[in-house]
Amino acid sequence: MNLTTLSYRIKDETAGKHLIQMSYSCTFVWNFCNQSNAERWAKFGKTFTAFDLNKLTAGCAKDLGLHSQTVQAVAEEYAKCCKQFKRVKLNWRSRKKSLGWIPFKASGIKIEHDSITYGGRPFRFWLSRPIGGRVRFGSFAQDSKGHWFVNLVVEKSVEIRTPTGKECGIDLGLKTLATLSDGVELSRENLTRQYEVQLARAQRARKKKRVTAIHTKIKNKRKDWNHKATTRLVREYDRISVGNVSSSNLKKTRMAKSVSDAGWADFKLMLSYKSIGIGTVYTEVNESFSTVTCSSCKARSGPRGQAGLGVREWVCVECGSRHNRDQNAAKNILWHGLPRILRTGHCTPLRESPRL
Ligand SMILES: [Zn+2]
């Protein structure tokens, strides 16, 4: 079993009013714990444990309009922070400056589809992805923009994948996001170009909010696509190799728009942590010369330079194999990611070369 935190945005704006009121109560409990703790330290040179604080705060929940377990959760969090920072007094939580926060335990809430009931009041949220597990605890929390979210800590059973016997190298391209060594292409919309006109219009009109909203939309769409693609990949393949292309270098060239659209970094990060979670072997390899090297005979016979970028297909002059440029590169990347012992069957290994 492992614990995952899922965050969902609260739907109805009117909910904020009630949540803010409750978060004030949580602030009150926190500050009460803080004061009691400091006083006890001053008098007896001792601090309260979470257990003591629970006894001290017992019975105040109803008057504060909170679930009793929320009061407990605040006290426990307070004690935990004291311990963690080795302090007898923490910062006061302020009504105005601190972001809203209402912790709860599973027994204090009820979740039905996209609605969470707390303190007898339902709060609807955007069910952006399934919860898919047993909720242990969580919190309502506010972000710096004042939006409310419900965070759920969910217990999920660890997925054990059955080996598929499939391996792939991935060539991260500029236009279609990625080409796999088995010829599969993962393509996605060019979001930056898609929203280019809208974005320019908003910028000219100096509509700051609109500009932020469009950027957020692009970011979320990209993230969503990355999540779906990487989940599919780690489930399907036992071994995944990716080139170590540095997008910051490419960003300086005229391909900048396509590159930032592709967003390698996030995609690779997701691949790596999802691989660890599920038991897929993930490696990043030096991909220099992967496009010009023949994946069959390892001769550097491919099209070179800027002009070579336009060539989609080529034939190796050494061995006569016909290659699709991207798929050939992906095959080389896969081969590089293999353990040395599996590579020795090939005649001349690629020489190590400096990074791009
Ligand atoms: Zn060849």
Automatic annotation (TrEMBL):
Alphabetized InterPro entries for the sequence: Cas12f1-like_TNB, Transposase
Pfam family, one: Cas12f1-like_TNB
Keyword Acyltransferase: no
Domain Cas12f1-like TNB stretches: 264-333
Superkingdom of source: Bacteria
Signal peptide (UniProt feature, chain positions): none
Keywords (A to Z) from UniProt: DNA recombination, DNA-binding, Transposition
Keyword DNA-binding: yes
Domain named Probable transposase IS891/IS1136/IS1341: residues: 154-252
Similarity comment text for this entry: In the C-terminal section; belongs to the transposase 35 family.
Protein name (Swiss-Prot/TrEMBL): IS605 OrfB family transposase
